[in-house]
Give the backbone structure.
Amino acid sequence: MNIQIRSARPEDAQFIGWVILTSGRAHVQRGIWEVILGGMEEENLLFLKRLTITRTPHLFHYTCFLIAEVDSHPVAALGGYDPKVLGYPALRQAVVEASQEMGFLGPDQAAMQRSERVLCCIPDEVEGAWVIDSVATVPEFRRKGIVSKLLEEILEKGREHGFRRAQINMYIGNIPAQRAYQKQGFRVLDEKRHPDFEAEIGSPGMVRLLRDLPPPNHPLYS
């Protein structure tokens, strides 16, 4: 299988929207975005597609993503970003922009209440860490080593940006994902749990994983 990895482009918006929604589901059936947005899957995908191409760059913007292709077809993707530049303040601005462009007139109080019930378990960013987010693969291409190749590439991208640590967050209980990340050198740092989160998502909370990113001249690479 010939796997090609490349930077995402604006025309990948629909696929990246699917990746964001799918990674949010992980081993549960109702992910964070589905709780926040409500509505039908098609509506959520349309919003996420628009979110990936806002004028404001942010952690879910297409420019943060790498795409894995097989025979010129996207089969997996993940994002990596600098949280100080592209973190949640930038995301909030982009959400407003995408909402306005889709004709949403103002804050949805029900959505705000749902958001509070799930955002309580979003892990804080580790100081100085490159953050990896939104990892998903098309079902028929899972367990073929594609995510490992993407992780290697996105970690190298973080290293090139000068980061010496990398962070990834996941739902508590997603054992296959945790094993895959631990094979890449990540270790569990801590957890956040809340009963509201478990009631909405079906997982007790989220776990924060961290690993070092030694520079290229480190003995690890010699």
